Amino acid sequence: xxxxxxxxxxxxxxxRSSRFFCVGSKWYFTTRxxxxxxxxxxxxxxxxxxxxxxxxxxxLPEEQLH
Length: 66
Prior knowledge:
It comes from Marinobacter litoralis. Pfam families: DUF6316. This is DUF6316 domain-containing protein. It is a single chain. The chain is about 25% helix and about 20% strand. It is built from one helix and three strands; from the N terminus they run βββα. A hairpin with a 5-residue loop joins strand 2 (about 25-30) and strand 3. The longest helix is centred in the C-terminal third of the chain and has 17 residues, at about 45-60. The chain starts with 19 loop residues before the first strand and ends in a 7-residue tail after the last helix.
């Protein structure tokens, strides 16, 4: 469980679980919006996939994020 506070949070952080999960031998990551992405061959590949996803999200115009 991650108990680290994020920027902008003023209250104690909510419960957070890992973004990564395994089904059978395939790995996935999940987003805050409830989107699951995968399958990936390994947890390391899922971590790379998440980094790529977050990079693309940062490139989106602000109005598309709401």
